[in-house]
């Protein structure tokens, strides 16, 4: 990736994670023929994490510097792991509920 693309990627990551921004507003007035600072206000704004930016990172094919092939291998590995967990969960769900009504917590 070029320098410009790295800067854009870094900005998207910053937006996805959320950040704080400091904003300074200065007011000047003409006093005795010269501009002088009469009021200065500093505000810190918190920008919350942006899920659209996070989605853009993962849909863009680059996550933590992984290549497309590495991402595909990781995706396959995770899908396999989820399928195994799902199969184990279904086996656990087939146990009798010992006469209880309703769901797993006994609710009707």
Which terms summarize this structure?
3 helices; 108 residues; two-stranded antiparallel sheet; alpha+beta
Instruction: State the major sheet.
Output: 2 strands, antiparallel
Strand content: 25-35%
- How far apart are the termini? 57 Å
Overall mean pLDDT stands at 79
Q: Which structural class best describes the helix and strand composition?
A: alpha+beta
Give unreliable regions as ranges.
none
Q: Using only CA atoms, what is the Rg?
A: 27 Å
Spatial sequence of strands, sheet with the most strands? 1-2
Describe the structure.
With 108 residues, the protein is α+β, with helices and mostly antiparallel strands. It has helices spanning 3-17, 51-59, 68-93, and strands spanning 19-31, 34-47. The chain has a two-stranded antiparallel sheet with strand order 1-2. It is elongated.
Protein topology:
Layout: H1 3-17, E1 19-31, E2 34-47, H2 51-59, H3 68-93
Antiparallel strand pairs: 1-2
Could you give a quick summary of the protein structure above?
This protein is an alpha+beta fold.
């Amino acid at each position: 990736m070029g320098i410009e693309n790295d800067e854009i990627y870094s900005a998207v990551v910053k937006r996805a994670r959320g950040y704080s921004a400091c904003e300074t507003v200065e007011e000047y007035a003409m006093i005795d023929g010269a501009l002088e600072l009469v009021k200065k206000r500093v505000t810190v704004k918190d920008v919350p994490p942006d899920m659209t930016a996070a989605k853009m990172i993962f849909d863009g094919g680059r996550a933590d510097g992984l290549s497309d092939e590495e991402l595909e291998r990781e995706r396959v590995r995770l899908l396999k792991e989820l399928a195994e967990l799902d199969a184990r969960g279904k086996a656990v769900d087939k146990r009798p509920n010992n006469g209880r009504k309703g769901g797993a917590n006994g609710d009707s």
